[in-house]
Amino acid sequence: MSDAALTTVDAVQQAAADIDSDSPLLDAELLMQHATGWSRTSQRAWPERPLAEAQAVRFWQLVRQRATGQPVAHLLGEQGFWSLPLQVNAATLIPRPDTECLVETALGLAVPDQTRVLDLGTGTGAIALALASERPDWQVSACDLMPAAVALARANAERLGLPVTVVQSHWFAGLPAQSFELIVSNPPYIAADDPHLTNGDLRFEPATALVSGADGLTDLRHIVAEAPAWLVAGGVLLVEHGHDQGTAVRALFNQAGFQAIETRKDYGGNERLTLGCKAPGAGV
Q: What mean pLDDT do residues 250-277 have?
C-alpha cells in the first residue's frame, strides 16, 4: 500500500476504498493535499503525477489513521467554517456545516449597531469568530468551560486577527455582570445513551461537547432559563439543538417568558435552531 511509484490518482482511489465514511474520495483527496501540499484542483489537473517516497509514507500513514475512524479535521489540524480556516484538536467539537445556519440566522436579525454578543460554549470559537468577521461593529465575547477550548479559541482569534474576547466559564457562572443584545450557543444536546456516540467521528470527540443528560436537554434547560437575566429587553437568544428537539426547546423558551419564539431548519430540512426575544420592557 505504500508503493511510492503510485500516481496521485491511483493512491487516492486505493485510499478511498480503505476509508469507511460518507465521503471517502473527499477524505482521501484532503489527506493527499495535507501529505503533499497539492490542492484538490492540482490533484485532478495532474492525476498521473507520481508520489515521492516521503509523500507516500506520510499519505498512507494518514489513511490508516482515517481508516480507524479518526476525523479528517483532527488529522489535518484544521477545519473550514464560514470561510474561516480554524485550528481544531481533540479538545473541542469539530465545527459542523449546519452550524453555519446559526451564523446566517444571527446575521439576519434586526439588532442595533454595536450589538453585544455572547457565544456560550464556544469550542474552537467558530460561531463567535464568524460573527466577528462579518460584523466588525459588534462586540463579540465567548466562553467555554474547558481550558483547552479557551486556549484554542483564543489562538484562532489571534491567528485570524479578530477581536473576540474568550474567557473560561461554565455557561454564565464565571462571567462578570453585564448584558447582551444577542446570546448564541451550540451546546451539547445528545442523550447519554444515543447509539451514534459509538459510531464514526463522534468516538473521537469530547463527550463534554456532545452529551447533555439522559434526554440531551440538560444544558439547553439551563441556558434558556438563565439567559433572560443576561439579555437586555428585546434581546435575542438563539440556540442550536437536535433535529427532534424543536418542540421541547420551544416549550423551554415559552416557560422562560420569551416572545416571538420560532424554530429554523438546517440545510437538510431538519428543525435545528430556536430563537426568542426577551419581552420588551422586562428588566435587565
A: 95
